[in-house]
Model the fold of this input.
Amino acid sequence: MQVNRRRLVRGFRVFSSAADAGRVRRPTDVVLLVLGLLGAAALTLLAPGPSALDQSLTSLINSLRVGVGWLWQVGYALLAIWVVLLVILTLIRRTRVLIDYAVAAAIGFVLACLAGLIVGSPVSESVRSLVSADPPAVFPAVRLAVATAVIVAASPHLARPFRHVGRGIILFGAVCTVILGSALPIGALAALAIGCVAAAVTHLIFGSPGGRPTPTGVADALEDLGIEAHDVAEANVELSGVAMFTALDEDDQPLLVKVYGRDAWDGQLITSTWTALQNKGETPRIRAGRMERVEHEAVATLMAERAGVAVLPLVAVGRSADGDALLVTRLTGSPMKDLPAERIDDALLQDIWRDLVGLHDLDISHGDIDIAHIMVSPDGRPALSDLGDALVGADRSALMVDRAQLLVTLAITTDATRSVAAAEAVIGKEGLGELLPVLQPAVLDRATRKRIEDGSWSLDDLRAAAVEAAGVEAPDLIQLRRVTVKSILQIVLIAAIAYFLITKLAGVDFASIWAELKSADWIYLLGALVLSPFVQVSLSFSTLGSSLIPLRYIPVLMLQYAIQFIALVLPATAARLALEIRFFEKFGIEGGAAVSMGMIDSFSGFIVQIILLVTITLSGLPGFTSSVIPSSSTDSSSTDSSSSSPNVLLLAVVLVVVGALVTVLVPRFRKRIREAIPRWREAVRKHADAARDVLKVVRHPAKVSEMILGNLGAQVIQAIILGLCLQAFGYQAHLSQLILINTAVSLFSGLMPVPGGMGVAEAGFTAGLQAIGIPSAAAISTAIAMRLVTFYLPPIWGSISMRWLRKNEYV
Done:
C-alpha cells in the first residue's frame, strides 16, 4: 500500500523538469512567432467587423448555446482562474518562472492594445474588456490574449496533463468570449494569435526547459520495471525527444536507458514535426505513442539479436508509473566516437560492415547510421545501437542508404581509402557499385555534412575512391536548363503578345483594364499573395507520397518553390518533372526510377484534376452555367461579357493549334522530336525494371492518399486565391466555380508546350470567369492578378530556393 501511494504521488507531478533544468531557445518558437504575427496581422486587416467570417462563426457558436447561461460566465472566468492557479503553483516551487509569466502577460496586453488602436478601439475599451465580459465587443479579446500568453508561456514548464488542461481552457474561453458578446469571432482568433506571439517572444528571450526526466526519476522508473539500478547519470548522447541515461544494475553491469518522457517538450507535436521536417525524414512516427516507439525498437532489436547480428542486448521494455516509456539495453561497450585512433583497425571496420549486412539480410534498415550508434566492446567487437528508426521489411533503396551512410561514417572516423577498402572486402565490387548512386549529400544529416566539411577530404573524393575500387563509371545526373536573361526576355515578349491578343479578342482596351486595376482592393490581393506559397506546401506532400524512400520535407518544399523558378523556361509539367528527376537522383534513385517517380507525382495531379472536373460537372454544384455572385458594392446588372467569351476560348484553341503546327512544320523542331523518340524508347526499355519497382507505391494506400490529398489541397488553395483576386475587383463566385475554372485552366495550360502556360492560362482564366458572368474588364484584371501572385512573383522566392538546393547539393 505504501509503495502504491508513493507511485501515485510520483505520477501526479506538476512540473515537467527539475527546478535547475537548463533552458534553450527552440526554432519552433520562431515558427510560432512568425505564424502568430501573420495571423494577427491578417485578422487586424479584416477588423473590426463583423465580417462574413464573423457572421458564419457566430452562427456556429450560437448553435452551441444551452439553457444554462452561467456556464459561459464560468468559462470566461476560468481564463483568469487558471492563470492565478499557475501563479500560485509557481510561487511554491518555481519563483523564477514568474518573470516569464509577467513578461508574456505584458507583451500580450501591449500587442492587444496596439491591435485595438489600429482598428480604432481606444485603450480604455481594451482595459475595460480585460476585467469585464459585458458587450460591446472589443477587438481583440484582451483577457483572452493575456491569458493565452501566460498559459502558452507556462506550457514547457508544466507536466503534460496540465498542458492539456490549459489548452482546453483557452479554447473553451474563446468560445465563451464570443457567446458573451465580449468579442466577435475575429477578435477571439486575433487574441489567440497575439497570445501565441507573446509566449513565443518570452521563450526566445528566456529559453524554455525540455521536460527531461531527472536521474532520480529514471531510477524510480527502472524500479517500476523490476530493475534495481544505481549510479544513474545522463549519457553523452543527444536525441530529440528522447532522454538517454546510463546506470549500473544490482550486479554492477552497465545499462543504457532510453526514456521517452511523458512531459518531454521535444516530444510534443510542433517540436517533433519541426525535427522531422529538418532531420528525421518523411516518417518520424509523430503519430506513434511512446510505448509504440519503444516496442518497435524492441522488436527490431530482438529480431537482429536472434539472427546473430551484434546489437545491444535487450533487458527490459515498459512504462513507468509516471507514464514514461523506457527501453533498457545492456551496454556492452563505448561509442566508437570515443575510441582512440589506434584501436580502430581494418578488422573492426570490416566487422561493422558484416553486422550491417546481417541486419540487411533480415530486410531491416537501421535508418540512422552514425558514429554515435556504433558501440565497441573492450575486446574490439562492434555492435549496432539505437534501432529506434529501423524499418522492418525495408526495400532496396533504404538498405542502400544505410550502406552509403556507413561508408561516409567510417571515412569520417578513419579516411576515405580505408573506408572504401573495408566496404569492398565485405560487400565486394558489385555491392560497392550498387551504393554509388546513393552516395549523395541528400542522404546525410546535417551533422554528418558538417563533419565532412571540417575534414580533410570531400564527398567527391570518397565517391571517386569508391568508383575506382568498384571499377565502374560514375553515374551521370540529368542536366537542368538554366534561367538566363535571354529566356526572361522571351517570357516578357510572349506575355506582351498574349495580353495584347487577349484584350483585343475580349473587346476590352487597356484603359478599362487599368481603371479596374487601380480600383482593386489591395488587401484582398495581398491576402492572395500571402496564401500563394501554401500551394507548394500542399504539393510537397504529393511528392513525398510518390516516393517509397524517406525524404525530408524541407528540401521537398524548397524543390516545389524552385519548380516555380525553372518554370520560367520550361512548360509547367516539364519543369516539375525535370527538376524532380534531378532531385530524386541526388537521393541515389536510379534514372528510370527517378523518371517514374516524377511521372507518378505529375500523373497524380492530373488524376485529381480530372476527378474535380467530373465531380463538379455531374454533382449539380454551381459551375459554368451558374451566375456570378456580385458583392454588395457591385452592380449585379453589369455582366456584359458573355458575348466575348467565345472569342477568348477561340484564342486558347488557336494557341494550341499554332503550337502543334510549329512543332510539325518547322524542320528543326521536327528533327529534334524524330531524334528524341528512339532515345525515349531506349530509356524506357533500359529502366523498365527500376520503374516497375517504383510503381509499387500505388499499392500503399497511405502513399496514394498522400498524393491525392496533396494535389487536392493545392487545387483548392489555388481556387481560394482566384476567389480573393476576384473579390479584389468587387465580385464573388461559388467555391465550386472557382475550383472548376482553376482546375480546367491548370489542366489545359499544363499540357501546352509554353513556359508556365503563358498566354494560355490568362486566356483560360478570362474565358472561365466570363462564362460565369464576370464582365470582361474585371475578368481580365482578375486573370492578371491571379497570374501575378501565382506565376510571375513566385520565381522571386523560387530563385532563393534554387540556390538553397544547389548549395546543399540537392540538385
